[in-house]
Amino acid sequence: MSSKWVYLFEEVDEAERHVGGEWEKVRALLGGKGANLADMTRIGVPVPPGFTVTTEACNAYLAAGEQLPEGMWEEELDALKAVEEKTGKRLGDPEKPLLVSCRSGAKFSMPGMMDTVLNIGLNDETAKGMIELTEDERFVYDAYRRLVQLFGSVVLDIPDEPFEQALDELKKGLGVSSDTDLAADDWKQLTATFKRIVKKHKGFDFPQDPYEQLKLATEAVFKSWNGRRAVDYRNAAGIDHDLGTGVNIVTMVFGNIGWDSGTGVAFTRDPATGEKILYGDYLLNAQGEDVVAGIRNTKNIDEMGSDLPEAYAEFLKICDRLEHHYREMQDVEFTVEQKKLWMLQTRDGKRTAKAAIKIAVDMANEGLISREEAVMRVKPSDVDTLMHPQFDLKAKAQATGEGKLLAKGVNASPGAAVGIAAFDADLAEGWGKAGKDVVMVRPFTKPDDVHGMIAAKGILTSEGGATSHAAVVARQFGRPCVVGASDVVIDLEERQMTANGVVVKEGEWISIDGGTGEAFVGQIPTVSPSFDEETDLITLLSWADEFRRLEVWANADYPRDATRARSFGAQGIGLCRTEHMFFEEERLPIVQRMIVAKSEEEREKSLDELLPFQRSDFEGIFKAMDGLPVIIRLIDPPLHEFMPDERGLLEQIIEKRVKKETKDLAELEELLAAVEGMHESNPMMGMRGVRLSIMMPGIVKMQVRAIFEAACNMAKQGVVVKPEVMIPLTGHVNELKAIQPQLVETARQVMTEKGIEIEYKFGTMIEIPRAAITGDEIASVAEFFSFGTNDLTQMAFGYSRDDAEARFLLEYVERGILPENPFQTIDRDGVGELMKMAVEKGRAARPDLEVGICGEHGGDPSSIEFCHLIDQNYVSCSPFRVPVARLAAAHAALHHKK
Ligand code: PEP
Ligand code: MG
User: Fold this and answer.
1) Which of 569, 512, 502, 565 is nearest to 539 (CA)?
2) What is the pLDDT of residues 450-503, one digit of tens each?
3) Is 767 in the pocket of ligand 1 (CB under 6 A)?
4) Is the pLDDT of residue 339 over 60?
5) Which pLDDT score, from 0 to 100, does residue 270 have?
6) Given the CA of residue 786, which atom of ligand 1 is nearest to it?
7) C-alpha closest to that of 708 among 758, 671, 656
8) From the CB of 863, is ligand 1 less than 6 Å away?
9) For residue 555, which ligand has an atom nearest its CA?
10) Is 636 touching ligand 1 by the criterion CB < 6 Å?
11) Total-model pTM
């Protein structure tokens, strides 16, 4: 255990040696603030003399049941002596009193979460000395009452209210409203009142001994590490509880000691836009809190150039120096005391997503950091934020304050959407086509709601989770979406919803935030970005592309989505869900006829009718993806999804029977019988995927024919086509053996008919644990694997992907039963192990096996890292997540660089 508990700011080299040279460890030992104060001292930046009591001392103190570790106080006194020598002042000396602040500072900044005491060293005697020195009684008593107040609340645990109340009463009595209206005598009187408050609450006097003040303040800062606010903040920010805080004892400098003094805060670049301009506020003749509290109107930092020219010139130089030293945008605090500039703090500045990207790119271009560092500095979530319209944060906070927050659900697809509520897809589409902004609201969505979702600006559902239909489709189309907002009660009869005591009727405005899962009544203003205009993002991603190994493909069902995905940088289509094409208006009746056909002939006829539609869809996609691979998945969902709802049909029939209408009755009855015949207790585990293909091969043969006719037609026009046909939901290799040869045969036939040979592959999705476990057998037939992690997660956990989040899953995560929602982030220990096994076994049987992922996890940064680690070839995600995935794939590669 270390015997050195205290480091002077000048002793940073020693601290560095003590921890073995690593700067991060110095930050852990001295806290971020202390480490940087010491570091600034080392490079010659003017910092008021001081020292840091280490985080180790804090931890030792707390571990020993709030006992100062042996030797610590003596070291603190020695350090104080050094500071006294440097400043020529002494603690408690009535003639030349030294005043110090006692400030907390943990490894990671926890703004405002722990305690600070200012003006330690003032007492009745030194106050008099200070008055003689400064000839400013008002200033001295203002400082003294601040010490009594802070010491009272922070160290002695007296509530703030009696102090605040006393100040208010004094002002009221004098008929003034601002602190600046108070004179020397008023502050003096208040100091006396504050001392009485201490006596009343504690039964003893405010300590006059400056050493006692210092000792107790140090202990109070140690204890504040375990204060409620600090603990809550660490829980929310994911900061370890065992780091401890450092305590910084710093010579006080005063910005409120006349008009040649001042104080301010600044960022070395604009934290909102990232622009390279000094950005900050300051005040003349003021204290730090005055700037932050906003009691007085602050001045723009460049005005300091005329107010305090020398100090300003030095400040500019220091800011530039600090940026070069830390190679990061800095957030600094400073004070000018009688023209002399002092730096009180520097740290890496917080910034918006846009600024984060611009600063990283600019700094790389300025040669301050490498491109690799620039790429690593931007978070995938920053890119995500930039890809979607956002609410104006102030307006959102205001709306919340006004009780307009309706409910909170799952944040399924990010971005802000504002529109009038439409309670069904047809209306959403109708209003959308009429140029209205619509938010579609449903209990949940089904494939035949897609047209409404596309026409809508956003989607809100009261049921379902992160991989529910609504969520998947919304992400695919880049629509902001909130699902599973279970406090929203939708009344489809009355065409209204109720939540948080508010009734929203169809046609009334609502706003949803898909990034946070919030839904509001009313219109909240948004700001919207456009990818082409995000030149810094485009540059950053082009650098990311140089570092990543994983390719990034996209899930796209329509040519326009493929085109968009490509413009965002997609290198292929990893999933084209063909069934969405079946739902379009003119096609659905044909699909239904095909399903209920009584003979093979009848079915063939409907399939022949569908073929040209599918062919032209595929032609569009091949054209859009010229030169790149396109994976087309054969039909997957159970057929009943294409049929009318059973209850609706029954109601129609009953109505006709009651009204004795015979028109269409027989057809409806037949349809009902067919729908009833398709009923399955568990359709997600029923006749779908490859099982359906085996039982009804006509549909997939038609699809394969359409794919190859389209591919050959396009190839003849000079388009480079690379079709990959994907068979869904395989569980046993024999399923592939039963169907794949027939499909390969169809493909060959088409190529012979068209007189052209094209490159192609047949492969399968890995969505069933058994398929993963028997990956070697599966790969003996399949030429590629694509992990359908939505189903694989559903089947591995045995959780219904449509219901789990609404019922228990979110609570599981909240209570820590599961670390994360496995439908959003791959569960590496379970699902991930299955994937790993599938890759290893698959590649053992077929070394050049292409492996990708097309479940929703393909756009999730942590899941992308896992895909990198198990050596997949690509990830595929919705077009709007392609930029995020490009960055995340680069992070994975750089992070795990061999
Ligand atoms: C999957 O299961 O992960 C998948 C991509 O297929 P779907 O979501 O269409 O079932
Ligand atoms: Mg699936």
Assistant:
1) 569
2) 889 889 999 999 987 765 778 877 876 778 899 889 899 999 999 999 999 999
3) yes
4) yes
5) 87
6) 5
7) 758
8) no
9) 1
10) yes
11) 0.83
